[in-house]
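Researcher: I'd like a candidate sequence for this fold, 176 residues long. If you have to choose between options at a position, lean toward the conservative one.
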């Protein structure tokens, strides 16, 4: 069970792909217990195969973050990353959330998103802001992600297949 003894304000989920991190983010937002702005990502599936990822804001904007058919120079595996769409939709959703009261949601701080320097700057602004941040951070190590993980105001919750179904009330308690 996660604990938040230091009352850290930023809560980030980490875990293996497919474990349910985004599902948990959506359940927190849909619980009605938090007012939130920001974005989440979801898979684009065609004929049962993952073809890419959508970015969706909590206020209803959406776009293609990455797709196998994208000719972008920014690549993660077989996916071309649409940095312009991400900045226009995802980064703007964080900037908008920072102007309001409520939770700032970022799903996720990961390889595709980190192609954007503007996103990296906005993540730091959000983490430094007085608002609470809730999101997902990729498990891979790099200088930027390590810097976020080492912040004293940031608490990481590891999501596993064994604990994911029990985490919702715990996360809501941490965000209170």
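Model: Candidate sequence:
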């Amino acid at each position: 069970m996660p604990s938040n003894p230091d009352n850290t304000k930023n809560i980030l989920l980490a875990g293996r792909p497919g474990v349910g991190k985004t599902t948990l983010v959506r359940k927190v937002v849909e619980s009605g217990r938090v007012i939130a702005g920001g974005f989440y990502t979801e898979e684009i599936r065609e004929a049962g195969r993952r073809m890419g990822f959508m970015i969706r804001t909590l206020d209803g904007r959406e776009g293609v973050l990455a797709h196998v058919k994208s000719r972008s120079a920014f690549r993660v595996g077989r996916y071309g990353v649409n940095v312009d769409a991400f900045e226009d939709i995802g980064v703007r959703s964080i900037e908008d959330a920072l102007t309001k009261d409520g939770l700032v949601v970022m799903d996720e701080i990961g390889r595709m998103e980190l192609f954007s320097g503007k996103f990296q700057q906005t993540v730091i602004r959000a983490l430094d802001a007085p608002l609470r941040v809730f999101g997902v951070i990729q498990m891979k190590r790099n200088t930027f992600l390590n810097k976020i993980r080492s912040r004293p105001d940031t608490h990481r919750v590891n999501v596993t297949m064994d604990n994911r179904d029990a985490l919702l009330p715990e996360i809501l308690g941490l965000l209170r």
